[in-house]
Write a structure and sequence with these properties.
167 residues; elongated; mainly alpha; 79% helix; single chain; 5 helices
Length: 167
């Protein structure tokens, strides 16, 4: 009888330990999610500050393209676009948004960089590879569930979408 109660207490301790571990993991994941949101907000504020000079350069581009270096304008504009895609990647947590960030980063490198023909060819091949991955190897269910088994937030249908689909 005493041996049986030891087994029960050990099993109970293991269950309690697993519950504590699970609760701790959930809290760590929530803190990490909050840090991601904070980072996304900081990047967004920085992007807003980067847009101001772009708006100020617009009249100079319309009047005299030489007054404002067009290449610098394009670099800054594409940096903002990449930043916006980065914020989307942080918010969505989907493989598709990661591929989009890579696509824009490579396209920026090609557009504003003055590279050799070989480097341009490699950039075009990398973009083609991204499109091939999206078309043939991209599995929408990859990352569809969170570690706890809950559906990923970017794959859950919105209430508005389900209401309009039912109508």
């Amino acid at each position: 009888m005493e041996n049986n109660s030891r087994r029960l207490s050990r099993a109970g301790l293991r269950r309690q330990e697993e519950r504590v571990k699970h609760a701790f993991r959930d809290q760590v994941a929530e803190v990490a999610s909050l840090l991601e949101v904070l980072l996304a907000i900081l990047v967004l504020v920085g992007l807003i500050f980067c847009v101001v000079p772009l708006i100020q350069w617009m009249p100079g581009l319309m009047v005299d393209g030489n007054e404002v270096d067009v290449r610098t304008f394009l670099e800054r504009a594409l940096d903002v676009v990449i930043g916006i895609e980065f914020i989307k990647m942080l918010a969505k947590h989907s493989p598709g948004s990661s591929l989009e960030v890579l696509l824009y980063a490579i396209a920026r490198h090609m557009i504003v960089g003055h590279d050799s023909a070989l480097e341009n060819l490699l950039s075009v091949a990398a973009i083609a590879l991204i499109f091939i991955v999206r078309k043939f190897f991209f599995v929408p269910s990859f990352g569809a569930t969170m570690p706890g088994g809950k559906p990923a937030p970017d794959l859950e249908p919105n209430q508005e979408e389900t209401c309009t689909a039912d109508d």
